[in-house]
Design a protein that fits this description.
The complex is a heterodimer of chains A (about 110) and B (about 110). Chain A has about 110 residues and is mostly beta strands. Chain A is built from no helices and 11 strands. Helices cover about 0% and strands about 55% of the residues of chain A. In chain A, a hairpin with a 2-residue loop joins β9 and β10. Chain A is globular and about 40 Å long. The termini of chain A are far apart. Chain B has strands spanning about 5, 10-15, 20-25, 30-40, 40-50, 55, 65-70, 75-80, 85-95, 105, 110-114. In chain B, a hairpin with a 3-residue loop joins β4 and β5 (about 40-50). Classes of the chains: A mainly beta (about 110), B mainly beta (about 110). The interface of A and B includes residues 45, 92 and 96 of A.
C-alpha cells in the first residue's frame, strides 16, 4: 500500500488563478509534512513545511494540514507560468526519514 | 557555498560493471541521503546516514552499498550494475537534529546501465 498519494495530473490552471494540490497519507503518527517543487530535469527543492493542523502561509504559497482526515494540501495563489513544475508531498513514515508521493504535475497556462 | 555536489553528472555502464557515486555537502549537515527517481515511481530512499559513523537502509537498498566517509561526504557504490539500476540518483542532506524532512538536494547523476 502506497503511503503517500497524490493525483499525478497534469493539473492545468490559467495564469493568475489558484492552484490546489492535494496529498493524502496513511501513517497516522506522522507529525511533519513537506512540499517540494521539482522542475523538469532538476532536483527537488523544499518550498513548505507544516507541523500542526491548520494553515501556514509563505508568500503566494499556503500549506493546509488536517491530521484527522490525513490530508495535506498546497495552494498557490496568483499562479505564474514559472510555477509550472511537479510538486512532491513528503512525510516521515515508520523508520523512513522521508517518504515521497509520486508528485502532481502543474501546468500554468499564460 | 556550493550546497550539495554530486559527481559524475552522467554515466553509462555495462551490465556487471561497478562504480561509485560521490556526494559532498558544505553546510555542516549531520544527515545525508541517497535516492533514486524513476518515471512513475517517484523518489525512493536507498540508504541514509543520520550522523557521521552511521548508515541505514531505506526502501530500496538491494544492489547498493554506501560509505559515510566523513561528515561532508557520503558515497553510493554499485558493485555489479544491472539495467534495473538505470535511474537518476539524488544525494541530499539535512542539518537540524531530528528534522529529516528539510532536505537539500544535489543536482543528480543520470545513470544508464546497458
Amino acid at each position: 500500500q502506497k503511503e503517500v498519494e497524490q493525483n499525478s495530473g497534469p493539473l492545468s490552471v490559467p495564469e493568475g488563478a489558484i492552484a490546489s494540490l492535494n496529498c493524502t497519507y496513511s501513517d497516522r503518527v506522522s507529525q511533519s509534512f513537506f512540499w517540494y517543487r521539482q522542475y523538469s530535469g532538476k532536483s527537488p527543492e523544499l518550498i513548505m513545511s507544516i507541523y500542526s493542523n491548520g494553515d501556514k502561509e509563505d508568500g503566494r504559497f499556503t500549506a493546509q494540514l488536517n491530521k484527522a482526515s490525513q490530508y495535506v494540501s498546497l495552494l498557490i495563489r496568483d499562479s505564474q507560468p514559472s510555477d509550472s513544475a511537479t510538486y512532491l508531498c513528503a512525510l516521515p513514515s515508520g523508520n523512513t526519514p522521508l517518504v515521497f508521493g509520486k508528485g502532481t504535475r502543474l501546468s500554468v497556462i499564460a | 557555498n556550493a550546497g550539495v555536489t554530486q559527481t559524475p553528472k552522467f554515466q553509462v555502464l555495462k551490465t556487471g560493471q561497478s562504480m561509485t557515486l560521490q556526494c559532498a555537502q558544505d553546510m555542516n549537515h549531520n544527515s545525508m541521503y541517497w535516492y533514486r527517481q524513476d518515471p512513475g515511481m517517484g523518489l525512493r530512499l536507498i540508504y541514509y546516514s543520520a550522523s557521521e559513523g552511521t548508515t541505514d537502509k531505506g526502501e530500496v537498498p538491494n544492489g547498493y552499498n554506501v560509505s559515510r566517509l566523513n561528515k561532508r561526504e557520503f558515497s553510493l557504490r554499485l558493485e555489479s550494475a544491472a539495467p534495473s539500476q538505470t535511474s537518476v540518483y539524488f544525494c541530499a542532506s539535512s542539518g537540524l537534529a531530528g528534522s529529516f524532512g528539510e532536505q537539500f538536494f544535489g543536482p543528480g547523476t543520470r545513470l544508464t546501465v546497458l
